[in-house]
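User: My collaborator sent over this chain with a note saying "see what the structure looks like." That's all I know about it. Can you take a look?
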Amino acid sequence: MLKLARVILVVICCILICVLGTIYSFIRFRNPSNVGVMARWFGRLHPLFGLKLDYRFLPQAPSRCIYIGNHQNNYDMVTISYMVLPRTVSVGKKSLIWVPFFGILYWVTGNILLDRDNRSKAHSTMSELARRINDDNLSIWMFPEGTRSRGRGLLPFKTGAFHAAVAAGVPIVPVVCSTTHNKIDLNRWDNGKVICEMMEPIDVSAYTKDNVRELANYCHDLMARRIAELDAEVAEGK
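Assistant: Without extra context I'll predict from the sequence alone. Here is the result:
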């Protein structure tokens, strides 16, 4: 019964956020700060899932950077999404536009849609990202795993985000969220604590397009270790 009530309430809230957010974002058409506002709206739904969130931001985040986060499951919408800062847009697959209610919101807020089926076009998109970061004074949010991990640990990283960072000459800021897979039971009142943390910026000046795989692997190892530490901290706090 609790699960059914939660699902109904969450669906109603998400539809309201999408409708009101779309109106809000049309008024500020594709303003890059729209994304952060909408992400905070969704993030405030976490109590409906019985979650307590501990958000750890940097005292001073770079004005232009590429954020990379771990992509676990649909609960990311109410956990790590809250970490999106103003003037940060995300990169998502083009097919998102067809998701009812959410698709139009995703587009109108100013996010960047990527055609993953066209590899040459996807490569040119990374160059376009680098240009937009500097010309429009933006930061970009990406999930370098490319898909939800769904309990398989931190999946290998694709290199697109790292190519864009090197081309733009901006740092990479890892953002990690403690494990939520199999930790949330919608029939349980209290689903415990989740920690989301923004790690220190990583300077990319020593890397070129020829060794971005090394950069990707380095970031992957840093994030995997930190996620394990956050999971241990959550377990100790129970």
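A starting point for your reply to your collaborator: The chain has one domain: 1-237.
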